[in-house]
């Protein structure tokens, strides 16, 4: 039976050991959370500004939730420079949607369901990032609730 080590663990058992960054070992987990209660319809390419992630944040997971909506309703999550940098084309659809943010690249795909799919970013954000949700696919109906949470480590 083979016994192998993660890159991070291997650094800690070398002589002398290499110190890991806080986001890799015993960092403090922080949460950014935003809720939007719609009072009117949102058209394709409309955006919702949810919160700001601080410079140095290393996102380790996230979760998006939205009430049932139109059958072809989708969402992108990112920032002004890369609107789908966190999630591209997450399907909301006619049933209540629960989307786990599953990657750090703009080629992200949504993972539908309640099981956690989390990842560790490879490097902290170089600058603060204002996180937005962009309406894609179809208009979002009025009277809907949208929630986004992102978990990150800075120290």
How would you characterize this protein structure?
- There is one protein chain.
- The protein has 155 residues and is mainly beta.
- It has a single domain (28-153), classed as Jelly Rolls, CATH 2.60.120.
- It is 4% helix and 37% strand.
- It contains one helix and nine strands.
- It has one helix at residues 7-12; strands spanning 29-37, 47-53, 58-66, 74-78, 87-91, 97-100, 111-112, 129-136, 145-153.
- A five-stranded antiparallel sheet has the order 1-9-3-6-7, with no helix packed on it. A four-stranded antiparallel sheet has the order 2-8-4-5, with no helix packed on it.
- A hairpin with an 8-residue loop joins strand 4 and strand 5 (87-91).
- The chain is elongated and about 60 Å long.
- The termini are far apart.
- The relative contact order is 0.32.
- Residues 103-120 have low confidence and may be disordered.
Coarse structural class: mainly beta
Helix content: under 10%
Strand element count: 9
Query: What is the alpha-carbon Rg in Å?
Result: 18 Å
Task: Summarize, please.
With 155 residues, the chain is mainly beta. It has one helix at 7-12; strands spanning 29-37, 47-53, 58-66, 74-78, 87-91, 97-100, 111-112, 129-136, 145-153. A hairpin with an 8-residue loop joins strand 4 and strand 5.
């Amino acid at each position: 039976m083979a016994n192998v080590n993660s890159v991070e663990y291997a650094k800690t058992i070398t002589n002398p050991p290499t110190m890991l960054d806080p986001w890799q070992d015993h960092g403090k987990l922080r949460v950014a959370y935003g809720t939007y209660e719609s009072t009117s319809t949102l058209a394709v390419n409309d955006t919702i500004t949810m919160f700001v992630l601080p410079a140095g944040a290393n996102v380790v997971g996230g979760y998006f939730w939205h009430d049932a909506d139109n059958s072809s309703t989708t969402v992108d999550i990112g920032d002004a420079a890369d609107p789908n940098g966190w999630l591209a084309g997450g399907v909301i659809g006619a049933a209540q949607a629960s989307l786990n943010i599953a990657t750090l690249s703009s080629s992200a795909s949504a993972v539908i369901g309640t099981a956690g799919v989390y990842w560790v970013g490879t490097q902290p954000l170089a600058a603060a990032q204002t996180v937005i949700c962009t309406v894609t696919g179809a208009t979002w109906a009025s009277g809907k609730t949208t929630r986004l949470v992102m978990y990150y480590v800075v120290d």
